[in-house]
């Protein structure tokens, strides 16, 4: 268990900068998600921490020890692969024992450690099975047991749940979190699934084009995305672009929108995000200034409605600008497509974004 | 006992499971597959089963010369093998040669296949692959004769060595056992490279990475993960090489000269020089039986080793 420090690390494949001057620290015992679209460099970064790739520049420290030139087998890491990578020529316990055996451990201590690890992932009864006799979820647990039985300093997971179906994935997320807490190992989890990153990790690093664009606790990143990319990649967002004048945001069509306190001080162009679940719609115009009722910002017509069980997503055409609103299904009647609506929100829910995608 | 000591017979179980699962569809599937299987099996019947049956018949004849009509059935040809120790000695020699050539092919072919399958990618792999199968493109007789130009005294190797070395050496491998081995390895190496390549390529790179991440050195990874998984390919290649090498006659005759007298050349003599087809056929079937016994005995042992 250890702190992992990545400092100014870069790696170029040919003309492609896979990882571009990345610095990030993974605190001891933390559960980190590296989130990004494919090609964002998240897996390359993970593979550099593991020791499968070596950085062109920068340093990687595990527990204070510089490891960027240490081969993978001497880094004392545990890794879980996307397709589990279980050894088909060994039984479940053979797989789990492998890491201990190659370290020269033998006999009773190996057997006890293997039994403990299998117990932890609740696979004790299947110890004698072969990998091909297991379901996807069970293989995943074996891979996890195999990775943690050697007591690695850091546990690396490369999209470990992407091959599982949705229900099983949710189960495994809970399971993974439980096991990680029990073992307490510093964990770095690569995923392109934003929901997974949000629900599973203590902290998220969002990557784009080989750089980390934002890093922080899931709630903080969700509530205060720094850039349009962070806002739209992690969750959904309506993006409003306009010019700040007299403390409010003037949109292209001339509509003026109130800005949250403190963000309308600097004149100039400004981009704001608003989460669809913060957008409210109503058929009649709310009374401006009435207690608890947010002011109206736009009017529009419902163009589409996506029903997803507990909520509905409305797409509203507000004189050429499409706004999305997610409405929990409660007492209110659903709005029909084509019906005119008023779109409104609390000014405080508007998130001002920095220019570009968070870099300077 | 550590968990790793559990015997593995994974490979054959993996292959039988999907078959067993499709048991209900077997009847129907077979009928549909018949038109696809028929040409191959018709050809095998025509090209292998019929000539073999004829050979069985020949091997039981006292004589085959057309002038003698009084040919009758006998086991004397088989008895000849046991009465003259020369045949057993030659067979043993051929088996040893087969073992040696197979071993050399494994030692050379497996590393080459590993590099091809796991290290080279893209165009570099294609280029090297082409070089491996290039020997297949030339006539085998030409291939063997070209070795005689290389290996004989005053040949290419001899001349080249003397051009480099400050002192004179006489380098003449022609008509020797090593020459036979060199020629046979050259002829059969591509089989080993190809079968090993196929089985190595089927090994997911993530398995190798997983082993390394668990602390295994490159050698341990090779020994405990790559080699066991590639074993079917090595065995297939070995069978493809061992069987024809034991019966080989062309390379021993051309490159081995008098030292190249082997079981295969004796059989060839019976057919082409002595015209004693019955004895040649009988010797062939004894070879076939011996090879089959070797394969049957070694199969379970090798499977257990995997």
TrEMBL record, chain A:
Enumerate the GO terms in the molecular function aspect: ATP binding
List the keywords (alphabetical): ATP-binding, Nucleotide-binding, Transport
**Which InterPro entries does the UniProt record give?**
AAA+_ATPase, ABC_SmlMolc_Importer, ABC_transporter-like_ATP-bd, ABC_transporter-like_CS, Mo/tungstate-bd_C_term_dom, P-loop_NTPase, Transp-assoc_OB_typ2
Q: Which domain of life is it from?
A: Bacteria
- According to the UniProt entry, the coiled-coil residues are none
Q: Boundaries of each ABC transporter domain copy?
A: 4-234
> Per its UniProt record, what SMART domains does this chain match?
AAA
Report the family membership: Belongs to the ABC transporter superfamily.
Report the protein name in the record.
Answer: ABC transporter ATP-binding protein
Species per Swiss-Prot/TrEMBL record: Jiella mangrovi
Q: What is the lineage of its organism?
A: Bacteria, Pseudomonadati, Pseudomonadota, Alphaproteobacteria, Hyphomicrobiales
């Amino acid at each position: 268990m250890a702190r992992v420090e990545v400092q100014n690390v870069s790696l170029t494949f040919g003309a492609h900068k896979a990882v571009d001057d990345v610095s990030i620290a993974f605190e001891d015992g933390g559960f980190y998600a590296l989130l990004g679209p494919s090609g964002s460099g998240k897996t390359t970064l993970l593979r550099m921490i593991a020791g499968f790739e070596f950085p062109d520049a920068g340093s990687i420290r595990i527990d204070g020890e510089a490891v960027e030139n240490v081969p993978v087998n001497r880094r004392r890491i545990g890794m879980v692969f996307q397709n589990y990578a279980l050894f088909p020529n060994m039984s479940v316990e053979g797989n789990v024992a492998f890491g201990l055996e190659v370290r020269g451990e033998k006999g009773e201590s190996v057997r006890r450690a293997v039994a403990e690890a299998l117990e932890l992932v609740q696979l004790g009864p299947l110890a004698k099975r072969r990998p091909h006799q297991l379901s996807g979820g069970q293989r995943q647990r074996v891979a996890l047991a195999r990775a943690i039985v050697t007591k690695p300093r850091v546990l690396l997971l490369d999209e470990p749940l992407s091959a599982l179906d949705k229900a099983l994935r949710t189960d495994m997320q809970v399971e993974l979190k439980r096991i990680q807490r029990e073992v307490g190992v510093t964990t770095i989890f690569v995923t392109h699934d934003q929901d997974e990153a949000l629900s599973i990790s203590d902290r998220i690093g969002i990557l784009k084009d080989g750089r980390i664009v934002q890093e922080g606790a899931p709630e903080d990143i969700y509530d205060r995305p720094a850039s349009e990319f962070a806002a739209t990649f992690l969750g959904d967002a309506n993006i409003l672009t306009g010019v700040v004048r007299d403390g409010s945001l003037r949109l292209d069509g001339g509509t003026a929108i109130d800005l949250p306190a403190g963000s309308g001080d600097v004149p100039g162009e400004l981009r704001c995000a608003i989460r669809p679940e913060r957008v409210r719609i109503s058929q009649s115009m709310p009374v401006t200034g009435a207690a608890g009722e947010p002011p109206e910002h736009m009017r529009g017509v419902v163009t589409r409605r996506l029903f997803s069980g507990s909520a509905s997503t409305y797409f509203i055409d507000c004189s050429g600008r499409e706004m999305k609103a997610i409405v929990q299904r409660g007492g209110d009647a659903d709005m029909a497509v084509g019906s005119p609506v008023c779109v409104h929100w609390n000014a405080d829910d508007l998130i001002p974004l920095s220019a570009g995608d968070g870099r300077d | 006992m550590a968990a790793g000591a559990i015997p593995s017979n994974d490979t054959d179980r993996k292959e039988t499971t999907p078959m067993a699962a499709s048991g209900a569809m077997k009847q129907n599937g077979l009928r549909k597959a018949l038109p696809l299987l028929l040409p191959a099996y018709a050809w095998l019947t025509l090209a292998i089963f019929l000539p073999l049956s004829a050979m069985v018949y020949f091997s039981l004849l006292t004589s085959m010369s057309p002038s003698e009509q009084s040919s009758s059935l006998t086991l004397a040809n088989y008895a000849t093998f046991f009465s003259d120790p020369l045949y057993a000695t030659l067979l043993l020699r051929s088996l040893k040669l087969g073992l040696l050539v197979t071993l050399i092919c494994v030692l050379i072919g497996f590393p080459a296949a590993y590099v091809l399958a796991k290290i080279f990618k893209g165009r570099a792999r294609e280029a090297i692959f082409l070089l491996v199968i290039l020997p297949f493109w030339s006539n085998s007789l030409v291939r063997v004769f070209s070795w005689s130009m290389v290996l004989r005294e005053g040949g290419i190797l001899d001349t080249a060595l003397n051009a480099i070395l400050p002192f004179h050496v006489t380098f003449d491998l022609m008509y020797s056992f090593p020459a036979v081995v060199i020629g046979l390895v050259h002829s059969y190496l591509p089989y080993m490279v190809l079968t090993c390549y196929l089985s190595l390529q089927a090994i997911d790179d993530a398995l190798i990475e997983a082993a390394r991440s668990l602390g295994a050195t490159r050698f341990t990874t090779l020994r405990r993960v790559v080699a066991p998984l590639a074993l079917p390919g090595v065995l297939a290649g070995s069978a493809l090489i061992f069987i024809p090498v034991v019966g080989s006659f062309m390379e021993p005759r051309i490159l081995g000269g008098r030292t190249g007298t082997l079981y295969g050349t004796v059989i060839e003599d019976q057919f082409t020089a002595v015209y004693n087809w019955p004895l040649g056929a009988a010797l062939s079937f004894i070879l076939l039986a011996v090879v089959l016994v070797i394969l049957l005995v070694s199969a379970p042992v090798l499977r257990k080793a995997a």
